[in-house]
Design goal:
heterotetramer, A: alpha/beta, Rossmann fold, seven-stranded mixed beta sheet, B: mainly beta, 4 strands, binds S-adenosyl-L-homocysteine, Trm112p-like protein (chains B, D)
Chain lengths: 225, 62, 225, 62
């Protein structure tokens, strides 16, 4: 199954909305850290419903582009935005259709690890960023977050499961400086009392607390030299 | 898509400039048309205002 | 009153301990974001009790140097550390006694705004950092944090009160890329019930909540190109 | 101070190398001594194991 087929199906089922709701818990504080200025051009990789760009536009960036490998997802995102300065494109992480040094800052939430060749994707991101441009890479699927390990069984696309230091190494191998790495907790998700467990995929309350409050979203920030 | 996207967009394969051929415009937006690479000649469709810049083999496989 | 006289007096009164206790609430999550690796050389500017370096050493950095303009403060810090890889120096922010490109990462908590010439201090920091090295600059005294404005009245050293965008601009003017800016909340300080206000310098509970939970510590992260 | 500090330390004024003259050592630490700039000749004291690299006028003013 290709990225296009898989996520076209997700879009057809309306799953972009549930992702936006859940991912927003940690995407919001992460987006708040980005050093964007008025007039900047920002790229969102694997944009889904496009919520990240709508949020950044409220802070006054100049132009916002959301790239997604699923035409149906891009169509959904386009439908959610009325803003002339926000545009969507269909494209692939490993073949970015942007000129060298054309992007001020890039963001990606819960999408990077679907890249067919994540090392090459990082090189592409470095290529399209201006000097000093940042890449805010946020993932919930990663080695330390053991609760995420089962996700691969539910999807046919091969997912990359790096740990914290593998992310730092890969960024540096691609020529990006690593400016920050953080585990951003999800403080908003409701965690029921212990008596209600098993709950969702969690056997115990501790496991759910660890998943969301301890590990949360892994953020790695790269800077183009 | 807005015409201003032309300033930063390029061919996903060889990164050369693209040339815009608009079939349908609406209020400053290009609704449908074609983007053609000025170097390799590969062309990419714009449909419902959204350019599809997937590599040709990823766009066409079913 | 010079920095040396002022902070020698603070050290004599033992104020470095109270600062460590209070600043740790936001310094801890900030230090956790730093992309330090085994073997890195890290500099702490205005080190006070030196707690930041002791914490970073637990993560396995190679060498840690704390610089302070107050000989008595440096002596205190030296007394708190038994670690051979942690060293302290007396020196001034505007005249850093380190060779070009000799430092992997730099940190500073509640000290930067005492610099006599903060623009020049940033140039000095850029000079001593290796390419890709970061400067984690954390301050509680800044424009948006209105509760901090009164602090100048209690100290004879002139303090720099920039706002968020002035920090970003000054970093860039000094040739540092800005990778991140964030308001890091102090979630640990106890805020009494409304009935107990006025409390400390706060007229109302709202004012204390705004000071600590909303504004907290302003973090600006610069990266040497 | 540890002798390894000599690898990165320099004169605060002109950023030239410093030369170490140790008066007292203990277990690999330099307890007291002098650091002298190889260029401007300015010297900086080491006391109680801590080098004082303040610019001379900031060190001496009272
Ligand atoms: N190789 C690839 N190239 C481009 N987009 C891809 C891709 N692999 C996955 N994607 C897209 O990445 C998205 C992952 S889902 C996450 C969506 C959104 N960022 C959110 O936080 O909710 C999907 O929309 C999927 O189509
Ligand atoms: N111009 C300057 N050069 C070097 N150190 C300075 C300085 N101005 C102030 N300082 C030092 O900066 C410290 C500020 S107090 C903060 C101490 C510590 N970082 C903490 O978080 O608790 C003092 O120890 C003071 O001596």
């Amino acid at each position: 199954m290709s990225v296009r087929e898989e996520f076209d199906a997700w879009a057809a089922e309306g799953r972009e909305q549930g992702m936006e709701d859940r991912h927003w818990h940690t995407a919001r504080p992460i987006l708040a850290r980005m050093p964007v200025e008025d007039g900047d051009t920002v790229l969102d990789l694997g944009t889904g419903s496009g919520y990240a760009l709508r949020a950044l536009r409220e802070r006054g960036i100049g132009a916002a582009y959301g790239l997604d490998g699923s035409p149906e997802m891009a169509r959904k995102a386009d439908g959610y935005s009325e803003d002339d300065a926000v545009g969507f494109l269909v494209g692939d992480f490993d073949h970015l259709p942007f000129a060298d040094g054309s992007i001020d800052h890039a963001f990606s939430m819960e999408a990077f690890y679907y890249a067919n060749d994540p090392h090459h994707t990082l090189e592409e991101i470095r290529r399209v960023l201006k000097p000093g441009g940042t890449f805010y890479c946020a993932v919930n699927y990663y080695e330390e977050n053991v609760a995420s390990h089962g996700w691969q069984a539910n999807i046919e696309i091969e997912m990359t499961r790096w740990d914290r230091s593998e992310y730092r190494d890969a960024f540096r191998d691609a020529g990006l400086h690593v400016a920050e790495q953080d585990n951003v907790p999800d403080r908003e998700i409701e965690i029921p009392p212990a008596s209600e467990f098993p709950h969702e995929e969690f056997d115990s309350r501790e496991a759910m607390v660890e998943r969301y409050r301890t590990w949360g979203t892994l953020l790695t920030v790269g800077v183009a030299p | 898509m807005k015409e201003s996207l032309m300033e930063i967009v390029c061919c996903p394969m060889d990164k050369h400039d693209l040339e815009l051929d608009a079939d349908e415009r609406d209020d400053g937006e290009i609704i449908s048309g074609t983007l053609t690479c000025t170097d390799c000649g590969e062309s990419y469709p714009i449909e419902d205002g959204i350019p599809n810049l997937l590599p040709p083999d990823m766009r066409d496989d079913a």
